Amino acid sequence: MDLATVDQPSTSPVFDDSKVTVVFVLGGPGAGKGTQCGRLVEDFDFCHLSAGDLLRAEQNREGSQYGYIVPMEVTIKLLENAMSAALKERTTGEGWIDDQGRFLIDGFPRKMDQALKFDETVCRSSVVIYFSTTEETSGREDDNVESIKKRFRKHLKLDTMPVIEHYTAQAKVAEVDSSGSIEAVHKLASVVVNDVFAGKYGQAVVA
């Protein structure tokens, strides 16, 4: 990864949000974000980027200077580079002609500084799809009850909820109840995406 420009200020976002659609995907532990992103990729030809996967790839790269803790600017640069690569590679198909693109960014932004910096320097996001869940229903099969509750509370109170509140104030949050079946949740998420492409993302959507 070229880190030479990581800390250089930008006067405007790299990508034009009138051509490039960025959908942030957030949700509590066990909300099924990955599964739903896969379905949305199939139906709407998104490029799915996982912030966590990009970070792990950078940390495991030979010669990488980053270990467990990675600066926020590096995370954002990794996303920017991945978006640039996708836009160069994908020049055909719905949503990918004339410098257009559509991205699902999974698990990002988790904190306010990430949200503000990405919108300022990379691309203004169109909407946040928030897959909501409850403490009782969240978690993975290999989790115990206490670990589920601990991660759920941290997720809500310290990390993601300030981001959700920030974008809610801009009428850019679409909340989807993830407690239903995979198919039912997918139908709700698909309605949100269609609304985004129809230009309705300026009005908060609650599915």
Short account of what is shown:
The chain has 207 residues and is of the alpha/beta class.
Q: If you had to describe this structure to a student in words, what would you say it looks like?
A:
The N and C termini lie far apart (39 Å). Strands 2-3-1-4-5-6 form a six-stranded parallel beta sheet, sandwiched between helices. It has six helices and six strands. The C terminus is likely disordered. The chain is of the alpha/beta class and 207 residues long.
Q: What would the keywords be for this entry?
A:
207 residues; alpha/beta; six-stranded parallel β-sheet; 6 helices; 43% helix; globular; disordered C terminus
Question: What is the average per-residue confidence, as pLDDT, rounded to a whole number?
Answer: 83
Structural class: alpha/beta
Radius of gyration: 17 Å
Question: Which residue ranges are poorly predicted, with pLDDT under 50 across at least 5 consecutive positions?
Answer: 136-141, 203-207
Distance between the termini: 39 Å
The quaternary organization reads as single chain
The global form is globular
Tally of individual helices: 6
Count every beta strand, where a strand is a DSSP E run of 2 or more residues.
6
Task: Estimate percent helicity.
Answer: 40-55%
Order of helices and strands: EHEHHEHEHEHE
